[in-house]
């Protein structure tokens, strides 16, 4: 039977014949025991009907045939339960048909193409070893070079086990009780359908010779290449389906597939090039608040309509597109096989973070700095993949782990610039950069805290160590280090009278229900002395919280308990020591430098009385987050006022002491200081309406932040001590 090759395929009976063939094969499988190949399926495989269909589809003759062939392959793979892909007369034409997909975008067959590719991906996800059949050209090329590392004996045996020497599947078993006449009837019917489909191939002038199985290097993994092409489709639904297919493929555990994916396809280039393109399409200036608050981004849901958005802003469409694609890259790397994930993450670092983002972060334009830092902050918040996070951390901080010195703080230029931006002349830039570091510190990556702080505290050379001797019996029962100054004798702390302090028992009763206090025989300063030291830092005349209900330390205790528990979970796998390193093993002679990050934070903390309220809130927020980490050296350096500091060293407590000394002098020059302070606090809490401008507003707000920060540090110290004391 012959057809007019100019007439569309829908005007012929080919579609109905294909449906009948499929129905016959499905019915046959349903009537047989699981795993058995019936005569109709045997006929389909033995007579290479799928090869014939591929040839017709490639020629698209009659017009529309490619669409029909794609749909037939999709339904066949989807509806037949027995594994078909291991058969050479299935996976070979499937591989050839894959190459036809994504060749041209926005074609009428795009929907069928993506459906076909996705069903192949789903089959590979079910049986990952099957992916080796789709790396055939690469395997043969390597075999010619004598590469035994990729082609294993098991792989060869697997292929031989599913095909005979002639490339045909083994003969099926006869099903007991099945009528031979029925089989012959169905086989004849299938044969008739197939013969009509293979009409006049010679008349169509279509070459039927097998295609060369050796493709050029970037086409070895044709399934990936076709999906990559379809991710560029103008039809968003097609692009999302292609992304889903890639998500399945990158997660396959087969090492050969992972190697081919990263070395012989353009996957890494596509991810990074599109990230770069979308980033460069963003406006030069975006409101940081818009970047921070734009709705949660899901890569598969990119149906933004500017007309329907009441909160639209210039560049929102571009911002959502960029963040959606970054989310896709993040999820792809998160799901990927390990070597694939590492390769993709390194590509993102080199081709996007360094090549595209770094010049923007290093620029001198304040508007540009603010926008690029806000985008970096959003990326830090959004990233969830551990592998991509590692590359992001190395990009921001560098890979150095040895102690810092003042002369080499510029060793990693971006790290140096970002830390300097924490003390920028622009308050907006300072706040945004501090917020970025605050969120970075909360990420589950050990290198972050080590690079910023811990590497400089390892030797504990911030302490002046006096070896214990007979004359040094001032190591009191509370474990205070020999030679440490008693704060109760310090002229700055004349308020430390019994009436103004809390006893250890009062602190224990004020905290959530806990076990009895740990006995003090481990050399640590008693917790109630530490707590009272922080609580009594600010003199009474500079305190205002006790005049306002609901501003006591108990709120900080509850928050500290919750936050410290969360931090302990993050740090659990880092295997930090439970106690400080022995001083005998430390190099106390080495000069101490707290590191660039703490240096800038301490400098900002020292100016708390002269900085805007919002800046002070952010500086103290970062310092409190650092104090929460359950590392003994951080606790000792940031939270123990009784540490005997080496000459020229400063700690968080010593910085606050200097601020309080300055405050006590300045208080004397401000008339009605306490009433003004109380009024400012009530205004900040919304308890008083805004009124006339008050003199010394910056200083008064700074005092309020200082008082609250000291209460927060006291609560953190108490919670950390109590948690470590609980068995």
From TrEMBL:
Starting at the broadest rank, the lineage of the source organism is:
Eukaryota, Metazoa, Chordata, Craniata, Vertebrata
Boundaries of every FHF complex subunit HOOK-interacting protein C-terminal domain copy: 594-686
Natural source organism: Taeniopygia guttata (Zebra finch)
Family to which the UniProt record says this protein belongs: Belongs to the FHIP family.
Please name the gene that encodes this protein. FHIP2A
Name of the molecule in the record: FHF complex subunit HOOK interacting protein 2A
What residue ranges carry the coiled-coil annotation? none
Name the source's superkingdom: Eukaryota
Q: Where is this region: Disordered?
A: 160-194
């Amino acid at each position: 039977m012959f057809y007019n090759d100019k007439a569309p395929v829908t005007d012929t009976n080919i579609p109905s014949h294909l449906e009948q063939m499929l129905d016959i094969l499905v019915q046959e499988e349903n009537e047989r025991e699981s795993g058995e190949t019936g005569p109709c399926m045997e006929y389909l495989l033995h007579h290479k009907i799928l090869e014939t269909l591929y040839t017709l589809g490639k020629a698209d003759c009659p017009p529309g045939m490619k669409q029909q062939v794609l749909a037939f392959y999709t339904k066949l793979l989807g509806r037949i339960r027995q594994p078909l892909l291991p058969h050479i007369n299935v996976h070979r034409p499937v591989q050839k048909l894959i190459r036809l997909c994504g060749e041209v975008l926005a074609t009428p067959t795009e929907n069928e193409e993506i459906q076909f590719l996705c069903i192949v991906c789903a089959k590979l996800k079910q049986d990952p070893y099957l992916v080796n059949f789709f790396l055939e050209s690469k395997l043969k090329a390597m075999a010619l070079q004598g590469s035994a590392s990729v082609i294993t004996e098991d792989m060869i045996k697997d292929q031989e086990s599913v095909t005979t020497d002639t490339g045909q599947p083994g003969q099926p078993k006869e099903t007991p009780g099945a009528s031979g006449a029925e089989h012959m009837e169905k086989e004849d019917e299938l044969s008739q359908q197939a013969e009509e489909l293979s009409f006049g191939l010679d008349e169509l002038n279509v070459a039927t010779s097998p295609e060369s199985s050796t493709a050029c290097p970037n086409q070895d993994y044709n399934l990936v290449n076709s999906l990559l092409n379809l991710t560029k489709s103008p039809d968003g639904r097609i692009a999302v389906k292609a992304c889903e297919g890639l998500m399945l493929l990158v997660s396959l555990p087969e090492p050969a597939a992972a190697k081919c994916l990263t070395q012989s396809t353009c996957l890494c280039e596509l991810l990074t090039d599109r990230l770069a393109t979308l980033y460069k399409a963003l406006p030069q200036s975006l409101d940081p608040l818009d970047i921070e608050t734009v709705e949660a981004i899901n890569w598969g849901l990119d149906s933004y309509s500017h007309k329907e958005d009441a909160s639209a802003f210039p560049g929102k469409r571009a911002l959502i597109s960029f963040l959606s694609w970054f989310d896709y890259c993040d999820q792809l790397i998160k799901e990927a096989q390990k070597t694939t994930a590492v390769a993709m993450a390194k590509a993102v670092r080199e081709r996007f973070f360094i090549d595209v983002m770094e010049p923007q972060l290093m620029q001198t334009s304040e508007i540009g700095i603010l926008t690029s830092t806000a985008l970096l902050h959003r990326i830090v918040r959004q990233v969830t993949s551990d592998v991509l996070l590692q590359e992001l951390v190395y990009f921001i901080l560098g890979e150095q782990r040895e102690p810092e010195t003042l002369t080499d703080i510029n060793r990693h230029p971006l790290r140096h610039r970002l830390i300097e931006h924490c003390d920028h002349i622009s308050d907006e830039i300072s706040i945004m950069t501090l917020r970025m570091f605050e969120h970075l510190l909360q990420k589950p990556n050990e290198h972050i805290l080590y690079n910023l702080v811990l590497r400089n505290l390892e030797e504990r050379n911030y302490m002046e160590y006096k070896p214990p001797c007979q004359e040094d019996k001032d190591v009191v029962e509370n474990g205070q280090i020999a030679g440490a100054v008693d704060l109760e004798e310090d002229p700055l702390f004349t308020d430390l009278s019994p009436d103004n302090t809390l006893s250890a028992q009062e602190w224990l009763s004020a905290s959530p229900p806990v076990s009895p206090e740990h006995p003090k025989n481990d050399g640590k300063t008693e917790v109630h002395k530490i707590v009272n030291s922080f609580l009594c830092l600010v003199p009474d005349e500079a305190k205002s919280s006790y005049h306002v209900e609901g501003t006591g330390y108990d709120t900080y205790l509850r928050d500290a308990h919750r936050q410290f528990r969360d931090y302990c979970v993050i740090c659990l796998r880092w295997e930090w020591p439970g106690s400080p390193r022995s001083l005998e093993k430390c190099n106390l002679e080495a000069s101490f430098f707290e590191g660039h990050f703490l240096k800038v934070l301490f400098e900002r903390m020292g100016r708390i009385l002269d900085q805007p309220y919002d800046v002070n809130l952010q500086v103290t927020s970062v310092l409190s987050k650092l104090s929460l980490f359950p590392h003994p050296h951080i606790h000792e350096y940031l939270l123990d006022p009784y540490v005997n500091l080496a000459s020229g060293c400063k700690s968080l407590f010593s910085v606050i002491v200097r601020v309080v000394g300055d405050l006590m002098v300045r208080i004397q020059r401000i008339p009605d200081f306490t009433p003004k302070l109380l009024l400012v606090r009530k205004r900040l809490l919304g308890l008083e309406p805004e009124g006339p401008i008050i003199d010394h507003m910056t200083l008064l707000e700074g005092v309020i932040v200082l008082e609250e920060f000291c209460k927060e540090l006291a609560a953190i110290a108490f919670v950390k001590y109590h948690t470590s004391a609980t068995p």
